[in-house]
Predict the structure.
Amino acid sequence: MSASNQSSKRESPIPEVNQLIERLVERENMTLAFEKVCSNKGAPGCDGMELTDLEPYLQRQWSTLKSSLLGSNYYPEAVLQVEIRKESGGTRKLGIPTVVDRLIQQGLHQILSPLFDPHFSDHSYGFRPGKSAEQAVVQSQQYILQGYNWVVDMDLEKFFDEVSHDVLMGKVMKKVQDKAVLRLIRRYLEADVMINGKREVRRKGVPQGGPLSPLLSNILLDDLDKELEKRGHRFCRYADDCNIYVRSARAGERVKESLTEWLRKRLKLKVNEAKSAVARPWKRSFLGFTFLADKLRRITVAKKSIKRFKGKVKELLRKGKGRNLGRFIEEDLNPLIRGWINYFRAAQTKRFAQDLDEWIRHHLRKIIWRQWKRNWTRYEGLMSRGLPEDRARQSAFNGRGPWWNSGASHMNHAFRKSYFKTLKLVSMEDQLNYWKANV
């Protein structure tokens, strides 16, 4: 084959790219999308359709829906916008597409991801198969240990609300030539927003909450990754959270200034100066983690992550008042603990886990103390748990409040750590020990 023919072959469109709309509606792709959407659960969108209604709807309407997708006649419903409290304070806008639009977006994600993901940077860790926040934090630690112990912590201001549709579609069109798919993606970007029952036109932004949004954000920010690689920087990016590691504060300030301008010009994105900084990594948090200022730069959990977790536990405790303690632990508390400590299993310290285990048991003892209600009931309860009569009487009638008593020696003696093991309370320390021994 001649060189000219080889060049022509390389430049010709990938055949599958021009058949994307047909691949979208294939039974296998839609079945996988249906299973994924159902497993993710989620609230209904603006049309009120529940996930349980999706299968009967598709049985009746799939032929019509398929034809409208193939014929570029499908227009998404408005996205229901709600505001949720951010863990760092303030609120975040969350867009909830209808269940039908979630199905189609998930199907789009499944056919587009193989076209884009293999070409993404190895330094991009968010919402990608085989990538995780844990990997990003471990890689960050390696940079720090190599002497890059200053971090440029870049926060993009209202990223998902500010994305330029034209800039984003320009990136998508580099790998997608199927006009029907391009129209569908554009329509999802421009779908109206339903706020308090009123429709509003959206001219920019990618609504958080849809299955397609994470992939689109990675497509846009891949240009940032490529620019950082071209400059030879050591960095980790997880969605719109990007940390760049340098050797000095001066170098960090130069990087921050030049990237702020680059993002504004190239991607039309603004850096949040109030939340961005050049600092020591152990003075900042990254994906909920931070590092100790010791020689090993050990990974640990950021204080604000622990504070947020405690807030979630307290909320559960308020909702669980009056319930059977064992059932509350099994059905409500343990799933929260498992999910949280599973995320933070990359931590290389255990003290935070020990402290949280003790703090949780303290709260559970307070529940027991309150459930006893009367002093005589407390006296009898402490006696039944093995306390001597005089000590049980003094403790039950001491006049102190529930929190003080639940942390006092008499309740610790009556309800030891072993008691909560019988209730199958998950121990964070035990979970960390298990992972360290088996990974």
